[in-house]
Amino acid sequence: MPINIPKQLPARERLLEEKIFVMDEERAVKQDIRPLSVLILNLMPEKERTELQLLRLLGNTPLQVNITFMNMATHESKNTSKSHLDTFYETFEDVKNRRFDGMIITGAPIEHLAFEDVNYWDELKDIMNWSKENVTSVLHICWGAQAALYHHYGIGKYKLPAKCFGVYKHNVSNPTIKLARGFNDEFTAPHSRYTAVSIEEIEKDPRLTLLSKSEDAGAFIIISNDEKHIMITGHLEYDATTLAEEYNRDLQKGVEVALPENYFPNDEVTNQPPNSWRSHTHLLFSNWLNYYVYQETPYEWK
């Protein structure tokens, strides 16, 4: 079934090229069904790239999904045009009186800052507090996951001695948990971050379950026991080339960065990296939408 997005959204043409079923608003209103409403708080600087990555995954399920994009009112985006934001994005003030079946809070390249030093931290706290009563399930990605662990559970982040950068093997602690249904015992996922969260603190917190971890990348998928929050410390939504683009960008900026681990074949940057995580990415998003959003959300919000 399709995702419902604005007809002029630039990502729409790319999604159609990839044969992903997209429906515009004119056709969607004629559908006599109750579509899911998903709010995406896009904190990434290159918002159009993140839009495409997430829409590709949300469009690969049997459910019709209405998408609303939101950005921060207290932060000015320097990498996305004002016209794009004005046309396709809303702010918290616009959506705070609505309810959503699901919500995604993306990562952001600001992990070097203490949470309280982020210029939109107060606004983000308001949004996360609001989500407790107005969203059925929230999926937090990378820095968004660290922010959720800190705000909701008091678990902070710490700086790594070197950037966690590459594609790493992970395992699943309990394959009977709905989010992991269909997962292999071992799977890969990309990471790109300078900070981490404590496995020990997560495992000691009775409100949380550590579903997946990696010997090299640490805690990966954390679920709150009330299933309200799902926190993923890596970037399953990344394309095959995203880590290469980040690596080249850092080199051009003069940033000292090691080659992404387990990524380029034979560690040769001229070799095309394979996407070894795509199937589990689609499975995770499909399981989230089905079991944590669709199965749990009320038909009519009261």
Description:
It contains ten helices and twelve strands. The protein has one domain: 3-Layer(aba) Sandwich (Rossmann fold), CATH 3.40.50.880. Strands 1, 2, 3, 4, 5, 6, 7, 8, 9, 10, 11 and 12 form a twelve-stranded mixed beta sheet that branches. With 302 residues, it is α/β, with parallel strands linked by helices. The protein starts with a strand and ends in an 8-residue tail after the last helix. The model is unreliable at 28-32 (pLDDT under 50). Helix 1 packs across helix 3 (47-58). Its EC number is 2.3.1.31. It is found in: Cytoplasm.
- The overall pLDDT, averaged over residues, is 90
The CATH superfamily title? Class I glutamine amidotransferase (GATase) domain
Question: Helices and strands: which structural class?
Answer: alpha/beta
Strands, count: 12
How many structural domains are formed by the residues? Answer: 1
Order of secondary-structure elements: EHEHEHEHEHEHEHEEHEEEHH
How would you sum up the global shape?
Answer: globular
Biggest sheet details = 12 strands, mixed
- So, CATH architecture? 3-Layer(aba) Sandwich
CATH class: Alpha Beta
Distance between the termini: 26 Å
CATH fold title: Rossmann fold
GO biological process, one term: L-methionine biosynthetic process from homoserine via O-succinyl-L-homoserine and cystathionine
Protein name: Homoserine O-acetyltransferase
Subcellular location: Cytoplasm
Enzyme class: transferase
